[in-house]
Amino acid sequence: MDTLSLILDDMHFDGVVFASSINAPPWSWRLTLPGLACAHVITRGQAWLVREGADPLLLETGDLIVLPGGLPHLIQDKPQTSATPRDLLPLMSQDLAGARLEGCDTPQSCHLISTHARFDVDMAAPLVRALPPVLHVRGLGEAPPPWLAIGLQFLALEVSQRRPAQQAILNRMGDILFMQCIRDHVETVTEGSGNWLAALKDRALSTALACIHRDPQHNWTVPDLAREACLSRSAFADRFTQTLGEPPLTYLTRHRMRLAARQLGNSALSVGKIADLVGYASEAAFSQAFKREHGLSPSVWRQQRQADAALAEANTPAGDSSAADRARAA
Description:
Elements: H1 3-10, E1 16-23, E2 28-31, E3 38-44, E4 46-50, E5 57-60, E6 64-67, E7 73-76, E8 86-87, H2 89-92, E9 100-102, E10 110-117, H3 121-130, E11 135-137, H4 146-159, H5 166-188, H6 203-214, H7 222-229, H8 233-244, H9 248-266, H10 271-277, H11 283-294, H12 298-314, H13 323-329
Parallel strand pairs: 1-9, 2-8
Antiparallel strand pairs: 1-10, 2-7, 3-6, 3-10, 4-5, 4-7, 6-11
Helix pairs in contact: 1-6, 4-5, 6-7, 7-8, 9-11, 12-13
């Protein structure tokens, strides 16, 4: 499996939540999902993406816009609209294919599909930090790229009526659209750009990263990874550090700590068992490494995460399936 696939697998994509709307001017939607990727597709008409501190961005028919970190934004009929922004998230929190809001359909109306992805926020953090705040796939004159055109046609067909296994199919379809958008961006990253995604295009570094993500519990050393990368120890260590911004074993340790955090938050395994799963022979050594990375011991971190999840669930309106994800992202 290639390195990007391994990284995406580590994120544990768990599908998406959709909402479709037909919007006649004036209109404005507000969406904020800290840490969780969200996206909008313009299937007809045009809209403007408005973010604080950034110039408004025009979106036209066939455009896909992805905000990998779920930054606060508005999507509306024009940069300075007279409409009062409405919260889009409750509309996206319905079961099945999401809600469908059909307003007055005029020649000036915008047909919009909005979505947010569910995944492991902690595991996704390095990738999300490396991506720009906005990924814009242009529709190329009302004709989106082939992969997006096919996806939109399939999506429109699937949401047109309720069918068995619809949510499972939509989940996979949404995952594919998000992953394809990320892959397109990775292909544009140039060597020496200072972005660690450039490592995915460097055969030596990509091989080393694949080793770490495929077998994180292995007792990797710098010479081991250099051998896999077919480089000398010093050349490998220098190239890795320069491209990814941290030494190889620091990257390995932080990856292990993210894996450990996932186990602590989602399983009842003992701290000792989790230490073993992420490559530590000693529970004490694991606990020290975890506290250096997360500021809390594994047991205290688990208790705090459980308390946060319980509080989020208690304060969650019925039907809001994304609240737990947002609590983890906070």
